[in-house]
Amino acid sequence: MAEGYGASRRSTTVAGAAPGSRPLVVPTLIVLNIAVYALTAVQAGNPVYNTMSRLFRELSLVPGYVHDGEWWRVLTSGFLHIGPIHLLVNMLALWMLGRDLEIVLGRGRFLALYFVSMLGGAAAVMLLNAPNEQVAGASGAVFGLMGALVVVLRRLRMPAGQAFGLIAINVIISFTLAGISWQGHLGGLVVGVAATAALVYAPARSRTAVQVAALGGLTVLLVLLIWVTGL
After folding, report:
1. Coil, strand, or helix at residue 122?
2. Among residues 60, 117, 139, 181, which one is catalytic?
3. Which residues have C-beta within 8 Å of that of residue 78, sequence separation ≥ 6?
4. Is 139 a catalytic residue?
5. For residue 37, how many other CB atoms are within 10 A of its CB?
6. CA 188 to CA 16: how far, in whole Å?
7. Distance from the Cα of residue 157 to its chain's centroid
8. 134-169 residue pLDDT tens
9. Greatest C-alpha distance within the chain
10. Catalytic residue check, 185
């Protein structure tokens, strides 16, 4: 995705970021996810059944608990993983998808995209899951990055067939394998596409203002949706 860093006549990327910076947010997020998993594994005394830890129970997304006032779960659940394979799959996807996207979007915009996609996944879970269902994982944010990749490739007029194929495969897996939250995956995907479109199609003259307004408005909308599910 070398073209995404900015054409030779441009001083910024299509999202307004300075080209050529090294990824910093992606490795930081990976370290945080691994650290949280390690804490839950130590508490549980078993790396495979880390869901037995007190920390996992207090931070995972359970719609009924959020309705009772435990709002932090809509974000903290995105840093929890159910066993080492779940962690490995999501962190590999985050690394592979996030490196180029962070450079194209810039660190601040990428971080905003990541968290709003995570919030989109949580909102979908709150809307569609049963009150007592427990959900955890960075998959909502990762699906948001998948959607972001397609939007960026289309914006740069680069082939996006492989990205579409990746999304199709993962959506099929989400619906066919037991124990996977397809709600969180699709919520993150839809929000990731919308947020990235705002980032890369914003007019150059008012780019920052449009980007902030769009992502801020999207965040408010998702928070209201989560709140409404508890009424």
Report:
1. helix
2. 139
3. 118, 121, 122, 136, 137, 138, 140, 141
4. yes
5. 23
6. 23
7. 24
8. 999 999 999 999 999 999 999 998 877 877 787 888
9. 56
10. yes
